[in-house]
Design a protein that fits this description.
heterodimer, A: 114 residues, mainly beta, 6-stranded mixed β-sheet, 4-stranded antiparallel β-sheet, 0% helix, 49% strand, B: 115 residues, 7-stranded mixed β-sheet, globular
């Protein structure tokens, strides 16, 4: 069974610091990759996704992620975080094609301090 | 437009009781998913619907769990004889279609506490 690992459980950064959140998955076949974000008191929402093509994908609010197939990784980055980025971030994978269900990591709680 | 809604937002029940959780997907979305998130864990897939049928029920943890969907609309997740390990946030998501390339839109969740 595929699995998703997010090794950073809780990250605390000062505003303007750079961010990188790790995500590794275990499935060896074709995958689609997603990052979801849950701001305090809000629903999970899609931040960005990768299906194919350019392995560097850009999402909303200045976030980007890089798919490195050889490392089974899809790390999330932002050059300069803001206080409003405080949220929980989830990496998710599906197998592509007709597969629908998402397999999620355990999430990383990001706290940005002023 | 309206997003995915779920009710109740919170449910506290006693061990052994049955509970029903409701999900109203975004209008026109044919695919509907149920996930749950237990404390300290990621979201785990339970079941998904394409229209009224459930092609994948592989995530339902036991036969105490069941779900149905009427039309391409409301879905209910029923947990019979609840146990303390059922305590979790139950999330519903909908998508315009099934398939790996369609974004899933999530509801706010139902927090279930089994005493």
């Amino acid at each position: 069974a595929q699995s998703v690992s997010q090794h950073n459980h809780h990250v605390i950064l000062s505003e303007a610091a750079s961010l990188e959140l790790g995500c590794n998955y275990s499935y060896g076949g074709t995958v689609n990759l997603f990052w979801y974000v849950q701001y305090p008191g809000q629903h999970l929402q899609l931040l960005l996704k990768y299906f194919s093509g350019d392995p560097l994908v850009k999402g909303i609010k200045g976030f980007e992620a890089e798919f490195i197939k050889s490392k089974f990784s899809f790390n999330l980055r932002k050059p300069s975080v803001q206080w409003s980025d405080t949220a929980e971030y989830f990496c998710a994978v599906n197998r592509g094609g007709t597969a629908s269900k998402l397999t999620f990591g355990t999430g990383t709680r990001l706290q940005v301090t002023l | 437009g309206a997003g995915v809604s779920q009710s109740p937002s919170n449910k506290v029940t006693e061990k052994g009781k049955d509970v029903e959780l409701r999900c109203d997907p975004i209008s026109g979305h044919t695919a509907l998913y149920w996930y749950r998130q237990r404390l300290g864990q990621g979201l785990e897939f339970l079941i998904y619907f394409q229209g009224n049928s459930a092609p994948d029920k592989s995530g339902l943890p036991s036969d105490r769990f069941s779900a149905e969907r009427t039309g391409e609309s409301v879905s209910t997740l029923t947990i019979q004889r609840t146990q303390q390990e059922d305590s979790a946030v139950y999330l519903c998501a909908s998508s315009p279609r099934t398939g790996a390339y369609n974004e899933q839109f999530f509801g706010p969740g139902t927090r279930l506490t089994v005493l």
